[in-house]
Structure formats: C-alpha cells, structure tokens
Write a structure and sequence with these properties.
The chain is of the alpha/beta class and 468 residues long. It is built from 17 helices and ten strands. The chain has two domains: 187 residues, P-loop containing nucleotide triphosphate hydrolases (Rossmann fold, 3-Layer(aba) Sandwich); 257 residues, no CATH class. Helix 8 packs antiparallel against helix 9 and helix 9 packs parallel to helix 15.
C-alpha cells in the first residue's frame, strides 16, 4: 500500500493549492471562494506507471465545535472513533463536509493540516486541532502563508506543538521542488512505519527531477543546433526579380525558426507537468517580444564588447563575423527595418559580405539561399530565450494561478543568462557555433560535448536555485 495523506483544514486556507503543488497537477481547481471543494478527491503521484504516493483534497471544516463535542462524548474504542463518526452521520446534511474530510482517515490516511499563517488563531482552529489529535492518526501541520502583510506563525507554532507530530512552513505559492522534498522528509518523522516507503518515494522524485533536467538539456540542444544550422533556398529563373523571392524566403526562414522554438517551449512545459490548456507567459517575460525583434536583440545575448573580445580570442572567419555583429550589423537591428542581413543570413563577414551577398543571401546562378546562420549573437539570444522559458517552468508552483512581479532590471543592461557567462564559457559556445556553421562532415566531438556539458550545468544550477 502506498502512503496516503488527507489534506485537512478550514475553508479557503489553500488546501487545494497545496495538493496541486505536491502532486504537480495544475488541473486541480484552485479558487478564492470559500467552500469550493465539496467532495474529497484523491490524486495519486505515479512515475513510469508506478503509484508512489497519494494526496486527498478534502472539503473544509464547517462545524468543528459540534464535531469536537461528539468526539469528546464518544465512549467506544479509541481507534474506531473516526469510523464511528462517519458511520453515524454519513446521511446527515449538517455534517456532510466533516464526513467527507474524515472518511480518508478511516482508510488509514495520515493528516496534513493546512492553515493560513497570515491570520490569527481562532476557536474553530483549536477545535479542529483537537479533533485531529483524537483521531489518533499521524499528522503534520503546514503553515501556508497566503500574504506577506501579516504573519502569525509564532502563535500557530505554539498551538501546533500541542497537537501535531511535525510542523512545517510550506507556501504553495512559492514552493520549489526542494520544498516538496523537504516536506516529504518531514512526513517521515510522523510515523516510523511509513519511513521506508517515504524514503523510496523521495529517491524516486529526486531521480525523476534529475532526468527531467537532462531531458530539458537535450530538447534545448537539439532545437538550437537545428536552428543555427538551418538553411532555406529557392530557385531563380532567368530574368526573375529577386525581391519577391527574397521576401518569401525571409518569411519562411523566420516562421520555421519560430515554430521550432515554440515546439521546444511546449516540450519543456509538458516535461515539468504544466499542462493547463491555455498557458500564458507572465506579462513581464522577455519572451513576449518576438524572437526576431529589435527589443529581443537589445535585451538578450552578449554585449558588443563581449562579442568583440570573444572574436579576438577565437579569431579566423568566426572572428570576422563577430566583428561585423559587434559593429552593429545584428539580426535584431535589421529585422526592425525588414531586412535579414546578419544573424539569419549566411553572412561571411567583413569585406567579403558586400562583394558576395545581397540582402543577406548567397548569390548563385540560379539559387537564392538563406542560412545557415553566421552571426554568433543569434546563438546567445536563442540560448537566453531557452533559459528564460526553462526558468519559468522549473520554478512555477503548480498551485499558483498568478505570478509575482519581477525585480526591475537596470536600463541598458543585458537581461539574459549568457551575458553573465565567463570568457571560458563564451568560448565553449563559440567553438560549438563554429562547428555548426562550418558544415563539417566529421563531428567535432570535443566542442559538442563541452557545449552540452555547459548547457546542462546551467540548467542544473537554475533548478537548484529556484525558490531561493
């Protein structure tokens, strides 16, 4: 039998939000309306088809003092008190919610009692705590502060110590993966018999989390590699006007890259179990700017100085392309005026560009070609956008239906992750970029492996820092 815990508490204390976060299930209805949950519903967490742990979302207490009065007058077997209450009042409308919330305890469920730490302790709360003590079930109390304006945690802790085996602050609006793990660690202490099973659950969760991070890295690596190396071409008939062909290729190129990025985002979102039918990025997200917009290239990627320094270190044809980008010929700048000269083109860099290219395209006797990308800034911009979306998904609690405002960034500064890379890390990225764009038949395994290792390291660090 897998461990099962009933989430109990007063109406509108955040029980459903806690269940949603613990189970990573954002389909659970979370409402500000008291009493929205009227029937108990079980949510089982499974990995690879194997059930691991179950949480039961329950209605809130409606008549705790009356229930406590019955419990205190009960003179039967102590271990049957909960089952006898449910049997006695299951058809009584007055105790409908209490029978629903206590029923999982008759099946052996433990108790997770949720309170809103931003309000004071009331008499009804004391009655609820005493009811749970009298059930004799293993129990833990959670302080789920719903606002930052007031904090009655010390008062709650004082009362909890009289009634519960364990106490934990767990804010379902901000809880990270590690907060979930620490919650499960605390549950081990409320009943020694459950400890071996909970140890197994915790290890399974950790292993699954690490696998998700590795998978996210693979998704990002595949998408960026395909995007940087992507090219598109169109045939030209003698005397044909190149303008319409140019515009058509430009649109197809951008549409293809956008579609691949969107697919990458979708895979990452599902990987971290954010399955809401309609998901909106927070209003402050930099991803609300189009991939090919001027704003995107102004806010993400490397600065001109960083690009120029990287070019000086690596040298060669890549250095020439970097010099061109650092001089201001970047994808974002030119797309703002409808041109694709720069990151989306097959730019050769330096003086050769003006001699061999027109509008960002290679000229041949009968073909116009766009790509593969030769502006390294595009690699850093794509990486930043992937990192930003990943950070949204890896840190977003499933029980939260809104997102907080972000800290304000200084004007004029790059706001992505890659601008904070060390010179060595930028070098790894550029060697990988050089490998992609040189179309080598033999893979440069060292540059690929170094880049993959860097990306996975960044993703792991971002996941570890979530919520802190």
């Amino acid at each position: 039998m897998i461990p099962e815990f009933a989430i109990l508490g007063h109406p509108n204390e955040g029980k459903s939000s806690v269940v949603s976060t613990l189970t990573e299930d954002d389909s659970i209805k979370v409402s500000r309306t008291p009493g929205e949950t009227r029937e108990s519903k079980s949510y089982t967490v499974s990995l690879d088809g194997k059930p691991l742990i179950r949480f039961v979302d329950t209605p809130g207490f409606q008549a705790p003092r009356q229930v406590l009065s019955w419990f205190q007058s009960y003179d039967g077997q102590a271990d049957q008190i909960t089952a006898q209450f449910v049997k006695t009042f299951k058809n009584d409308p007055f105790f409908r919610d209490e029978c629903e919330l206590l029923d999982p305890l008759t099946r052996g469920a433990g108790i997770i009692y949720v309170v809103d730490g931003s309000r004071p302790v009331r008499q009804d709360d004391l009655a609820e705590m005493e009811i749970m003590r009298l059930t004799g079930r293993p129990r833990m109390a959670i302080i789920n502060s719903k606002t930052d304006q007031q904090d009655y945690t010390p008062d709650w802790n004082m009362e909890f110590r009289k009634h519960f085996n364990a106490i934990r602050v767990f804010n379902s609006n901000t809880a990270s993966f590690m907060d979930r793990i620490l919650m499960l660690e605390s549950l081990k202490s409320i009943d020694q018999e459950w400890e071996p099973r909970l140890i197994s659950v915790i290890q399974a969760f950790k292993t699954d989390w690490e696998q998700r991070i590795r998978t996210a890295g693979t998704i990002i690596l595949d998408t960026i590699g395909a995007g940087i190396s992507f090219s598109i071409s169109s045939g030209l008939k003698p005397g044909m006007d190149q303008g319409p062909v140019h515009d058509k290729l430009t649109k197809k190129y951008q549409t293809h890259i956008r579609r691949q990025e969107s697919l990458m985002f979708q895979k990452i979102r599902l990987l971290f179990k954010h399955r809401q039918f309609e998901f909106h990025l927070p209003s402050y997200s930099l991803l609300n700017h189009d991939l090919f917009s001027k704003q995107t290239f102004e806010l993400l990627g490397l600065s001109r100085d960083q690009l120029a320094l990287a070019g000086a270190v690596l040298g060669g044809t890549l250095g020439a392309a970097i010099d061109t980008a650092a001089a201001g010929i970047t994808f974002g700048v030119f797309t703002a005026v409808g041109s694709l000269l720069g990151a989306g083109s097959a730019a050769l860099g330096g003086k050769k560009m003006s001699q061999q290219k027109k509008g960002g395209f290679r000229l041949g006797s009968d073909v116009l070609r766009l790509g593969p990308c030769k502006d390294p800034q595009f690699l850093f911009v794509m990486l930043d956008r992937a990192f930003i979306y990943y950070s949204h998904m890896v840190s977003r609690p499933h029980g939260r239906r809104d997102l907080p405002a972000p800290p304000l960034a200084a004007n004029g500064l790059k706001q992505g992750v890659t601008s904070g890379f060390s010179q060595a890390q930028r070098g790894i990225c550029l060697r990988y970029f050089k490998h992609l764009t040189r179309r080598r038949i033999i893979k440069d395994d060292k540059s690929i492996q170094a880049f993959e290792s860097l990306i996975r390291s960044v993703l792991s660090d971002m996941a570890s820092s979530q919520g802190h």
